[in-house]
Amino acid sequence: MKPSSTPAERGTNGTNAGTNAGTNAEASAGTRAASHAREPHLKRTLGLPSVLLFGLAYMAPLIVYGTYGVLAGASQDTAALAYLIALIAIVFTALSYGKLARLFPVAGSAYTYTRKSFNAHMGFMIGWATLLDYFFLPMVIWLIGAAYLGAAFPHVPAWIWIVAFIVLTSGLNIIGIELAARFNIVLMIVQLGIAAIFVVLCLHYAAAAAGPGGLLAAQPFFQPHVPLSATMAGAAIAAYSYLGFDAVSTLTEETIEPEKNIPRAIVLIALLGGAIFVIAAYTLQLAHPGAVFKDPDSAAFEIARKVGGDIFVTIFLAGLILAQFASGISAQASVGRLLYAMGRDEVLPKSIFGFIHPRFRTPAINIAIAGAIGLIALKLDVATSTSFINFGAFLAFTSVNLCVIRQYLSGAAGTRGFGFLGGLVFPLIGAVTDIWLLCSLEKTAIALGVIWFVLGLAYLGWITRCFRRAPPEMAV
Question: Which residues of 49-72 are buried (b: 16+ CB within 10 A; e: fewer)?
Fold first, then answer.
C-alpha cells in the first residue's frame, strides 16, 4: 500500500484554504513532483502465468473442502449446482473488474472504482463494506481449521485450536513473515495435488459402489424436491470460496502489459477456481450422497476417511491445516496493513492504527486487534461467519458492476470498447445476481452486515461533519 497523498497535499484539499496555504502549495508543487519522480517505483516483472498462480494461491483451492458440509446442508445436497450458480455471478463480476482494471490501470479495488465512478462518500461506504471481508476473514479461516483439528482430535476443546491459531499467526505477523510468502506457490501446488487425489478417490469409491454409470449422475446438480431458494442459499455460502479472485488487481503496477494481462487473469482465475470447486463438490456428492454428517463443519474429513482410509485422512488433514494456517497468516497480514493505510491517511485514528512497531517495522497494534477479533469465532459457526463476510463481498461486487454501467452510460474515455453487452447487459446481470445472493444469506448474517454498514455510515457522518465535506482518501 502507499499513501494517497502527503500531509501537505491533504492540506491543499480543503483544510487550509487560505491564501497563504494556496501560495505555499503552488510554491512546493515543483518540489513534490521532483520528489515523486525520485521515489522508487514497483518493477514490472510479472507475466500472465505468474499473476494466475498468485491469484489461485490467494483463493486457496482446498477451501472447497473446508466449507463443503455447511454448503451441502444449506443447499439441500445440491452443492455442485450452488457452486455453479455462484460461478456465474462471479464471472460477470470478474468481467466488470477486468474492464475497470483496464480503465484505471493502477493498484485498485472496489473502493477505488466506486470513488472514481460515483463519489467519495459512496467510495468510503464500499471500502467500509470491503473492510468487513478483510477484518473477519482471518476469523473464518481459523474457525474452519479448528473444526477439522477438532474432528481429528475430538478430546481437545475447540477453543484451544482457535486460540493456538490466533497466537501463532499473530506472533509471526508481528515479527515479520517475509519467508512465508516465498512458499506461496509451492503451497498452492500441494493443495492442487491433494485436491486431485481427493477427486480420484471419490470417483473410484463412487464407481465401486454404483458402477461406472454412476459417475455421470445428475443429482449433484438437480434434485426435483429441492427448491431453488435452498440452492441459492447454498450459492450465497459457496461465494466465500471465490473471495480473492480480484486480488490480482493489486499487482497492476508490477505486471507487464497490465491493461491486457490483469483483466485476463481476473476472469481466468474465477473460471479455473470455479472449475475446481464444481468438480470437487460433484465428486464429493457422488461419494457421499445426502447432507447428513456427524459434524457439518468438518464433513470433508469424514468423506476423506470413507474414500481413502486413515492414510489419506492424515495427508488431507495436514494439507488442509497447512493451507488454512498459511491463508490465515496472509489474511491477517492484509487486514493489518489495510488498517494501517486507513490510520496513516487519517481515515481511522492515526495514533492507534497508524502505529508501526519500532523494532519489527510491522503494524503490531492492528495485527493484535485482528487477533482479538478472531476470538469471536468461539461463539460462531462456519455457516454464519462465512455468510457474514459475504455480505460485504456482495455489496462490493454489486458496486463494481454498477461502476461499469455508470462509466459506460457517461461515455467516459476508454469505455467505447465496452459495447452494449459488456457495458450494460453483462454488468447488470452481475449486479442483479450479486444482490440475489446477498438476499439469500442467513438472516443473522444479513442483520450483522446491516449493523456493520450502519456503523460505517455513522462514522462517515462524524468524520465528514454530517457529510458536508469529502472523507479522507486512501489507496487500497
Answer: ebbbbbbbbbbbbbbbbbbbbbbb
Q: Which fold has domain 51-463?
A: Amino acid/polyamine transporter I (1.20.1740)
pLDDT tens for each residue of 182-219: 556 677 788 888 999 999 999 999 888 776 666 777 77
Q: Residue 255: what are its φ and ψ, rounded to 5°?
A: -105, 140
What is the rounded CA–CA span in Å between residue 264 and residue 460? 35
Decide: helix, strand or coil at residue 235.
helix
Convert the pLDDT of each residue in 414-466 to its tens digit: 887 888 999 999 999 999 999 999 998 888 889 988 999 999 999 999 989 88
Other beta carbons within 10 Å of 247 = 18
- For 159-225, list the strands marked E by DSSP: none
> Do the Cβ atoms of 61 and 241 come closer than 8 Å?
no
Which letter, b or e, does each residue of 78-96 get, where b requires 16 or more Cβ atoms within 10 Å of its Cβ?
Answer: bbbbbbbbbbebbbbbbbb
Q: What's the Cα-to-Cα distance from 135 to each of 80, 373, 436, rounded to whole Å? A: 29, 8, 24
pLDDT at 38: 46
149, HSE (Cβ side, Cα atoms, 13 Å): 22
User: Are 69 and 281 within 8 A, CB to CB?
Assistant: no
Q: How far is CA 77 from the centre of its chain?
A: 25
Other CB atoms within 10 A of residue 39 CB: 7
Q: Residue 211 burial by CB count (10 A; 0-12/13-18/19+): exposed, middle or buried? A: exposed
Q: What number of other Cβ atoms are within 10 A of residue 189's Cβ?
A: 12
Amino acid found at 142: W
Task: Please state, in angstroms and rounded to a whole number, the distance separating the CA atoms of residues 135 and 371.
Answer: 10
**Residue partners of 384: CB distance under 8 A and separation at least 6:** 442, 444, 445
**CB contact burial 410-425 (16+ within 10 A = b; e otherwise):** eeeeebeebeeebbee
Residue 435: count other Cβ atoms within 10 Å of its Cβ: 16
456, three cell numbers? 460505517
SS3 content of the chain, % helix, strand, coil (to 5): 75, 0, 20
Residues β-bridged to residue 46: 255
Q: CB within 8 A of 209, min separation 6: which ones?
A: none
Burial grade of 131 (CB within 10 A; 0-12, 13-18, 19 or more): buried
pLDDT in tens, 354-404: 888 888 888 889 899 989 988 888 887 777 788 888 898 899 999 999 999
Q: Domain boundaries in the chain?
A: 51-463
DSSP assignment of 59-122 equals: H-TTHHHHSHHHHHHHTTS-HHHHHHHHHHHHHHHHHHHHHHHHHS-SS--HHHHHHHHS-HHH
